[in-house]
Design brief:
Elements lengths: L3 E6 L3 H12 L4 E4 L11 E2 L8 E2 L4 E3 L3 H10 L3 E3 L3 E6 L2 E3 L8 H10 L6 H8 L6 H15 L8 H8 L7 E4 L4 H11 L4 E4 L4 E7 L2 E6 L4 E9 L3 H5 L4 E3 L3 H8 L2 E2 L2 E8 L8 E2 L2 E2 L3 E5 L6 E3 L8 E7 L1 H5 L5 H16 L3 H7 E8 L11 E2 L4 H8 L7 E3 L13 H15 L1
Parallel strand pairs: 1-2, 1-13, 2-10, 7-19, 11-14, 13-24
Antiparallel strand pairs: 3-4, 5-9, 6-9, 7-8, 11-12, 12-13, 15-23, 16-21, 16-22, 17-18, 19-20, 20-21
């Protein structure tokens, strides 16, 4: 194969955005993707028995995120705001509450006073170690594990503070027909230039010297380029799935200092939206958007305001990682038991209502090995090293490489793809 300008490893949001920007500047680009599809941890399934499309991977746009929303408008892809109410099940009772964690205001006050970073677990032990704060500690742990897929023993207290202080101000959106439309748009944009895409091409080795890289794949293909952009998920880097010659030991160590969580999504399509008929003294669940609980599958959401009989469950963080090797059947049963406890129904009645289900265990998926990154107390220093070019030849990009509160999101991946191209150029 003739030498090209840039090889991009990974056809997720960061990889395709980088490829688009490079071909716009006249560069020749080859994208190598390990899977048999593009999108990475974005995985919209359209042809399925679950009515319309389902999002097995990324689903939400968390805030008025400039790059994502601008790209959607450019592509004329419709999106809408989330609506509906969030409910909480606590001590077996479903309630509609604005504050889901006891002593939250005091927690925020103490976080604002924090000058020196530490893990959120150490922070809670230092300031809220008394028995009277046990529900606060448990609530924060569940929140950090669920939303950020973080291990509280490693997650940065200051990073979580910066995230939590602003989240109430932000709108949340969904793309009408799924993130897959955005990926398809980026791919079509790449095709307007000198672009190649190779699927089923898992990269195993990179031999490099300044100004030249040779990339080898599992299926014994090789590719030559002047530069390489590596956009594989952090979990793949942490597993050292790609061997570098010469070795880059400082970078190999740096990826271990960053946080990367586990996630499992459970998507259940029912015959009817049975929750809409549930009422209690706090009102009807007809416009329920989310329900947060203390169950094994703690978080569930509907497609509201869209009419749908789909319920999506979410297990995040160490609990998801612990279920990495669990069977789909056992995870499905966990989902049924959790829903039965939340809605006071029998598992048998729920199973009778089920049309189909889909389990997306990203922790067990070979080319993701988890969910998305979170900030540890060591992340800033590690990321500074990883985002600096290696002799203007090897570059790292992706959501984990983005510095900002959007780290871990599609927005971060897209921005990182743009940033890495600016460095190359």
């Amino acid at each position: 194969m003739a030498e090209i300008d840039v090889i991009v490893i990974g056809a997720g949001a960061a990889g395709l955005m980088a490829a688009r920007e490079l071909v716009k500047k006249g560069k020749s680009v080859c994208v190598l993707e390990a899977r048999d599809r593009v999108g990475g941890r974005i995985y919209t399934i359209y042809d399925n028995p679950m009515s319309g499309h389902i999002e097995a991977g990324a689903e939400f746009i968390h805030g008025d995120l400039q790059t994502t929303l601008s790209l959607l408008r450019e592509a004329e892809i419709p999106f809408h705001s989330l609506a509906g109410k969030t409910w909480q099940q606590k001590n077996g009772v479903l309630k509609r509450e604005t504050h889901f964690i006891e002593h939250w205001d005091l927690l925020v006050q103490r976080l604002k006073e924090l000058k020196e970073d530490m893990s959120i677990a150490d922070f809670l032990e230092r300031w809220f170690g008394e028995d009277k704060y046990s529900s606060l500690r448990e609530g924060v742990r569940r929140y950090a594990e669920g939303y950020d897929t973080a291990d509280t023993a490693r997650a940065s207290a200051i990073a979580l503070r910066n995230e939590w202080l602003h989240e109430d101000e932000e709108e949340t959106y969904r793309i009408d027909n799924g993130y897959g439309e955005l990926i398809e748009y980026l791919l079509n944009e790449c095709d307007k230039g000198d672009f190649e895409l190779e699927l089923n091409s898992a990269v195993t080795e990179i031999h490099w010297q300044e100004g030249r890289v040779a990339v080898f794949t599992e299926n014994e293909e090789s590719y030559l380029a002047k530069q390489a952009v590596i956009t594989v998920p952090l979990g793949v880097l942490q597993a050292e799935a790609i061997k570098f010659t010469p070795a880059i030991p400082e970078h190999t160590m740096a990826v271990q200092d960053m946080g990367y969580g586990g996630i499992i999504k459970l998507l259940y399509l029912f015959k009817e939206a049975f929750w809409e008929s549930i009422k209690n003294e706090q009102g009807s669940l007809k416009d329920m958007s989310f329900v947060i609980s203390e169950q094994e599958v703690p978080t569930w959401w509907t497609q509201y305001p869209k009419k749908s009989t789909l319920l999506t469950g979410w297990i995040g963080g160490p609990k998801a990682a612990a279920l990495k090797n669990a069977s789909e059947e056992s995870i499905t049963e966990l989902g049924f038991m959790s829903l039965a406890n939340i809605f006071k129904m029998s598992v048998e009645d729920l199973k009778a209502q089920l049309v189909s289900c889909y389990i997306a265990n990203w922790s067990s998926e070979r080319f993701s090995k988890g969910s998305y990154s979170y900030v540890t107390t060591e992340t800033a220093q590690a990321r500074q090293l990883l985002t600096a070019a290696i002799h203007n030849t090897i570059y790292f990009a992706g959501e984990a490489m983005y510095e900002g509160k959007e780290m871990g999101t599609v927005e971060a991946a897209l921005k990182s793809g743009i940033e890495v191209v600016n460095k190359i150029l």
